[in-house]
Write a structure and sequence with these properties.
By secondary structure, the chain is of the alpha/beta class. The protein is about 45% helix and about 15% strand. The longest helix is centred in the C-terminal third of the chain and has 29 residues. It binds fe (ii) ion. This is Tyrosine 3-monooxygenase.
């Protein structure tokens, strides 16, 4: 769950790609049982009344200590170093240089081990808040340590002085078994955690709360209690979903269907001139199968069956926006995490966050195209075990391709990015001749800053999906990950290719495929000869 994020946000799934993705591989594995607690925490933020009552239960001893710490100077006594970790000693030395260094804002990753239930997290957060800290990322998991209920990973921004004071205060709290500062970019590449099987995606459900209707005053549903309640109802369905479950059916209201019809008809108007051939082909198949019609919102389960039939991609309900690491990891398993709620009816052609219409009309048709599906999966595979910096680059590539990509088709520029296919305003802007169009080159695209509040000033144009894949593969091979990951569709597992046995197995499979290829070629030659 993201408490705040200053860097990103807009309209698509990965529009909320958090550049500061703190999902440290060593602590990124969270048990699915926590979903309800996550949801309860998010709901606490939604509901002012609930939040007020939480505040009243704050541990006042801790609060008082933080308040008193605000006026106190950090100790320069060397004795205070006793029991400090290396990172804390370095922090203390950095803070002691001068007043400016002391007041400099430091981003720190804290690992807190809670003795009590998840509710005690609220007390800790209050202490951080009182210490003028800003929590930018928060995750939790059941602890494996005896006597500790939860491990919490929190990234906070606060002055060095306040951070040091915070560490001392929290160490005195009986709520916490321990507290540790992790060094930045501390990623354990020897034994990274990432989902190894499609069922592990049950643990990849870390939501970002930005642009939720309850939290954003500019959201069209901000003051609509009925809409907010509907959003929660649909989010709850996703929270309950587990790998292997049947995808629940949503009974969409007449209001929601009306919004779908408006956007669907708009897509029908724009598609012939501006959408890429692969999209048009998949759209027609969906129409032929009676899944795409103007008067009915397709069910996620029907879209799932359609995609499974064509490329093996599957869909699972998501309660909201996922972190980039989780979202990309899903793609590695040919799984697309989809919201199921519909944008507010007063704003059919714009939504501040990705809704089901964006997923269905923007993303899903192309996932039925084998070449595009492969490209999506390769982006996902490259993310498994990647460093935070690499996740940011992969997210940026995702942004400029799967969300806002353009491609060439018979000398013309067509759209294939979901943020263009499902949002006609940006689509018309992209092909207006005003923005700059650059050739897709992953090493350059990956570091291009992008616009997430308004229309893009720059788009990248791929020669074709095949060309984009070739370039992407070459670029990915230069990334830092010291192992290769392959997806085994038979077992639905992501396999690390780092042993002779695994390479032998792969070689055996490839030899079998080559045998099929040779036999088929020979038969074709005999038939034609
Ligand atoms: Fe999207």
């Amino acid at each position: 769950m993201y408490v705040s994020d200053n860097k990103m946000a807009t309209m698509c799934c990965l529009w909320l790609l958090d550049a500061s993705l703190a999902t440290d591989a060593a602590v990124a594995h969270f048990a699915s049982q926590l979903q309800r607690q996550h949801q309860a925490q998010i709901n606490d933020q939604y509901d002012d009344q609930v939040f007020d009552s939480e505040e009243k239960s704050i541990d006042h001893d801790l609060e008082n200590e933080v308040e008193s710490s605000e006026s106190s100077e950090p100790s320069s006594d060397n004795d205070s170093d006793a029991g400090l970790t290396e990172e804390e000693v370095l922090l203390e030395k950095a803070a002691s240089q001068d007043k400016d260094a002391e007041k400099a804002i430091q981003r720190a990753t804290l690992v807190l081990r809670l003795r009590e239930g998840i509710n005690s997290l609220a007390r800790v957060l209050k202490v951080i808040e009182n210490g003028k800290g800003n929590v930018v990322h928060l995750e939790s998991r059941p602890s494996k340590e005896q006597g500790v209920q939860f491990d919490i990973l929190a990234k906070v921004d606060m002055t060095r002085k306040d951070l040091l004071a915070l560490m001392k205060i929290l160490r005195q709290s009986s709520t916490l078994a321990s507290i540790t500062i992790l060094a930045e970019d501390n990623i354990n590449v020897k034994n990274p955690w990432f989902p190894r099987h499609a069922r592990d995606l049950d643990n990849c459900n870390h939501l970002m709360t930005k642009y939720e209707p309850e939290l954003d005053m500019n959201h069209p549903g901000f003051s609509d209690k009925v809409y907010r309640s509907r959003r929660k109802e649909i989010a709850n369905i996703a929270f309950d979903y587990k790998f292997g479950d049947l995808i629940p059916v949503i009974e969409y209201t007449a209001d929601e269907v009306g919004t779908w019809t408006a956007v669907f008809n708009n897509v029908l108007d724009l598609m012939p001139k501006h959408f890429c051939m692969e999209y048009r082909n998949a759209f027609k198949m969906l129409q032929d199968d009676k899944i795409f019609t103007a008067d009915k919102i397709p069910q996620l389960k029907d879209m799932n069956e359609f995609l499974k039939k064509h490329t093996g991609f599957t869909l699972r309900p998501a309660a909201g926006l996922l972190t980039a690491r989780d979202f990309l990891a899903s793609l590695a398993f040919r799984v697309f995490q989809s919201t199921q709620y519909i944008r507010h009816s007063t704003s059919p052609f714009h939504t501040p966050e990705p809704d089901y219409i964006h997923e269905v009309l923007g993303h899903m048709p192309l996932l039925a195209d084998p070449s595009f599906a492969q490209f999506s999966q390769e982006l996902g595979l490259a993310s498994l075990g990647a460093s935070d910096e690499e996740i940011e680059k992969l997210s940026t590539v995702y942004w400029f391709t799967i969300e806002f990509g353009l491609c060439k088709e018979h000398g013309e520029v067509k759209a294939y990015g979901a943020g263009l296919l499902s949002a006609y305003g940006e689509l018309l802007h992209a092909v207006s001749g005003k923005p700059e169009l650059r050739p897709f080159e992953p090493s350059i695209t990956a570091v291009q800053p992008y616009q997430d509040q308004e229309y893009q000033p720059i788009y990248f144009v791929a020669e074709s999906f095949e060309d984009a894949k070739d370039k992407f593969r070459k670029w990915v091979s230069s990334m830092s990950r010291p192992f290769e990951v392959r997806y085994n569709p038979h077992t639905q597992r992501a396999e690390i290719l780092d042993s002779v046995d695994q390479l032998n197995n792969l070689m055996t499979q490839l030899n079998l495929e080559m045998l099929h290829l040779n036999t088929a070629l020979n038969k074709l030659k005999m038939r034609s000869g």
